[in-house]
Design goal:
The chain is mostly helical. It is 77% helix and 1% strand. The protein has helices at residues 3-28, 38-41, 53-65, 68-76, 81-108, 115-122, 125-156, 158-179, 185-205, 212-228, 235-260, 280-287, 295-305, 314-338, 342-351, 354-367, 376-409, 420-423, 425-442, 445-473, 479-505, 509-543, and strands at 273-274, 278-279. It is globular and about 65 Å long.
């Protein structure tokens, strides 16, 4: 099978879907620029501030991507390339794109509040509280695990540490130049991207060699500052500039793929059960998350993106378009390893991990570009640095989102004066980072990591549940969110049930207990939502 045919077919499908299905969602939700967005109506210069479309797309894409769309498809390729390819293609168009786009619009229509606020409005306060606790706990886990991954990367690749520090300084300069000195975005972008790649060269010349422990403390300080600093100073410009890093990697990989003309050497379907993973259903659908659908996306969409949306029509570009770009990245990652022979792929995956397998495959593509063919070792390092840069992006975004969830949990609408936990972002961030640091330094965070896939996809199911209830309240046809919601709950609940069973057999009672709690949360919210639907139906029938 030709890798070129697979990627070209996917790109054509994504472009057509953006126009047709994305337009359908826009019409169904009556997306219009006559509605003032929260970035204008609630402007505060810290969290609520409008961003230009390409800047917000870069920030959103960098935040949702991370290492997920690369690592997930490569690990799931153990089942064969066909199931992964189909899930990414179908999932991005009909599930992930819908989930991301509607999450932004729903949040914008509710003053930029999170999915938890929507759950409170249409399902109840107890549902919101449970959702926010679950979201905050999941984001704490993300913070701890990604901090460990990033510190480990910086320790083993000192040049990546230097480049990342320089990226942050460059982002601050970019933000001040664009937002305070009103420099044209296109000129600033050209200069910023050029300096971005100079930072990479300087990283190779002056590697910052520090211990993992020192990097952990530096990262803890960084995520605190990143969470309380106005988004236009650091988070938004850094994500925007970093997005060009990943765009370059994607363009270089796709162009290189066209000249390499690789054949897919991995087996189409290897097995329906993998020893270290489990059965294809439901494990495939929780392993390949970010490339098809990810609950983390709804937290980003309703946490930071909705607060920066300049006009409602931008939501289609950022939400639906951003998901399709991520789907393209996931397929590129799949084809990068599918071009390797089966034994080489499994050897890299089992000994050096998914990132190493991806870097090796993508380096082969970039090496074959005529005239500018990059040396294999340089291309490999570039790909690895790109992945680590986006892991850092997910880390600081998760911290800010955890702070939002924490503050929203303690918010009381009836009170004019809120507690210090709500109104003081420094206190809320400090407590959040403290919990993340405790988990991070305990050495236990990685043992809980297998739960993240199921927890992440449950977030997606719950987000779709809240959005479906909201659309039903508007008296609109909600089948386009209901069907994906039902599927994601089926996947998540099955995965958690199997996870409980497997950990009980291993006598790992802590993980079993956590899985049962997550299962109970999902069932409780579904029951509450069903009661709301039933009550709404009765009221509608009575009115007739």
């Amino acid at each position: 099978m030709s890798g070129i045919a697979l990627i070209v077919f996917a790109i054509i499908m994504f472009i057509a879907s953006y126009k047709i299905y994305g337009g359908f969602i826009s019409r169904r939700l009556s997306v219009t620029n006559t509605n003032e967005t929260p970035s204008h109506s609630m402007y505060d210069g810290v969290d609520y501030c409008p961003a230009k479309t390409p800047v917000l797309l870069g920030h959103h894409f960098a935040s949702i991507a991370g290492a997920g769309p690369i690592v997930g498809p490569i690990i799931a390729a153990s089942f064969g390339w066909v199931p992964v390819y189909l899930w990414v293609l179908v999932g991005s168009i009909f599930i992930g794109g819908v989930h991301d786009y509607t999450s932004i619009i729903a949040s914008v229509r509710h003053k930029g509040k999170s999915i938890g606020q929507i759950i409170e409005a249409y399902i109840g306060l107890s549902g919101k509280k449970m959702f926010l606790i679950f979201t905050w706990a999941t984001l704490i886990l993300v913070m701890a695990v990604f901090a460990i991954i990033v510190s480990d990367t910086f320790y083993h690749i000192p040049s990546a540490g230097t480049s990342s520090v320089l990226f942050m300084l460059l982002a601050i300069a970019f933000g001040v130049t664009v937002y305070r000195f009103k420099a044209p975005l296109w000129i600033s972008s050209i200069i910023g991207v050029a300096l971005l790649f100079i930072c990479i060269l300087l990283g190779n010349l002056f590697p910052l060699q520090l211990s993992k422990e020192v990097w952990v403390w530096i990262l803890l300080a960084y995520i605190f500052v990143a969470s309380v600093t106005p988004v236009w100073i650091l988070l938004q410009p850094r994500d925007y500039l970093n997005s060009y890093f990943l765009y370059t990697l994607m363009i270089g990989g796709i162009v290189g793929l066209l000249f390499t003309m690789p054949e897919v050497h991995l087996s189409p379907i290897t097995t329906f059960s993998v020893d270290k993973l489990g059965f294809l259903f439901p494990i495939l659908f929780v392993t390949v998350a970010c490339g098809a659908i990810s609950g983390f996306h709804s937290i980003v969409a309703s946490g930071t993106t909705s607060k920066q949306l300049d006009k409602e029509s931008d939501a289609k570009v950022v939400g639906y378009g951003g998901m399709l770009i991520e789907g393209s990245l996931a397929l590129l990652a799949l084809l990068a390893v599918a071009s390797l022979d089966q034994m080489h792929f499994l050897e890299l995956l089992n000994t050096k991990g998914a990132v190493a397998a991806f870097s090796t495959g993508i380096a082969n593509f970039m090496h074959n570009i005529p005239f500018i063919g990059i040396q294999i070792d340089h291309a490999t390092n570039f790909a690895a640095l790109a992945v680590s840069a986006f892991a850092l992006t997910s880390l600081d975004t998760a911290t800010r989102l955890a702070r939002y969830s924490f503050q929203e949990f303690f918010e009381v609408k009836e009170k004019k004066v809120q507690s210090i936990l709500v109104k003081n972002r420094f206190v809320a961030t400090g407590i959040t980072v403290l919990f993340g640091a405790t988990l991070m330094l305990s050495g236990q965070s990685m043992s809980i990591w297998p739960l993240f896939g199921s927890a992440n996809q449950m977030l997606a199911a719950i987000a779709l549940l809240a959005i479906t209830v909201w659309i039903a309240h508007l008296k609109l046809n909600y089948s386009f969110t209901l069907i994906p919601m039902v599927f994601m709950f089926a996947v998540t609940l099955t995965a958690l049930a199997s996870f409980v069973y497997s950990n009980l057999l291993k006598q790992n009672f802590i993980l079993s207990f956590i899985s049962i709690l997550l299962f109970g949360l999902a069932v409780t919210l579904v029951v509450q939502a069903y009661q709301v639907f039933r009550k709404s139906s009765k009221n509608g029938a009575a009115a007739k």
